[in-house]
Amino acid sequence: REFPGCGNIVTFSQFLFIAVEGFIFEADFGRKRPAIPIRNYFIMVAMFFTVSVVNNYALNLNIAMPLHMIFRSGSLIASMALGIIILKKRYSVSKYTSIALVSLGIFTCTLMSAKQVASDSSLSQEDGPQAFLWWLLGIAALTFALLMSARMGIFQETLYQKFGKHSKEALFYNHALPLPGFLLLAPNIFQHAVLFSQSEPFQVPGIGLTLPIMWFYLLMNVITQY
């Protein structure tokens, strides 16, 4: 709650950590050539970077974190829809039923969130409609990111069918190639780095090292997400 716009620094840290680890152990310090032509990775990276940034920015558009997490769980719905449209796939009745139930849950959560935004007593009559419009824009951003993520999955599936599955290689390039794009977000990342450094000190258990508590949280997030 204290740092609602910190998604960019979290994402950058995750990308940097995975890129460094992959450069050492997967790319062998740049000596190993990729099995999949790198131009395909640039396409995948453009999708991946867009999804990450849009998901982070949605938190600045009046989207509550619980709704953000539940909405992103709808990736199965988007994957199935695009699989039917693009790959002409067909699924069993049980899978359609499961997706319908998940969709109902996401719809219910979204509806409750909309009612909460509309009835927020802390907003004036002038600010209320504006807050609701920002919320609608946030829902649109989450929907776009959901569909883009599903399209990226289909693109990755077709690459694996053509060149073979190279998941570790894809993980490395999907995180290393977008790093220059974070220069566009440098002011926001730097701002939150300063704010993190000003957070209360925290002594790391076991080693006695003292860090600002937000840097400790960020470190734990990066390690556990990998």
From TrEMBL:
The UniProt entry lists membrane topology as: Multi-pass membrane protein
Can you list the GO cellular component terms from the UniProt entry?
Answer: endoplasmic reticulum membrane; Golgi membrane
Tell me the compartments it is located in: Endomembrane system
Q: Where are the transmembrane segments?
A: 12-29, 41-59, 65-87, 99-119, 131-150, 171-190, 202-223
Transmembrane helix: is it a keyword of this entry? yes
Write down the InterPro entries for this protein, in alphabetical order. Answer: SCL35B1-4/HUT1 (IPR013657)
Q: Name one GO molecular function term.
A: UDP-xylose transmembrane transporter activity
Keywords associated with the record? Membrane, Sugar transport, Transmembrane, Transmembrane helix, Transport
Q: Major location, coarse class?
A: membrane
Listed PANTHER family: NUCLEOTIDE SUGAR TRANSPORTER SLC35B4, SOLUTE CARRIER FAMILY 35 MEMBER B
What protein family does this chain belong to? Answer: Belongs to the nucleotide-sugar transporter family. SLC35B subfamily.
Q: Please identify the protein, giving its name as recorded.
A: Solute carrier family 35 member B4
Organism of origin:
Pycnonotus jocosus (Red-whiskered bulbul)
Q: What is the lineage of its organism?
A: Eukaryota, Metazoa, Chordata, Craniata, Vertebrata
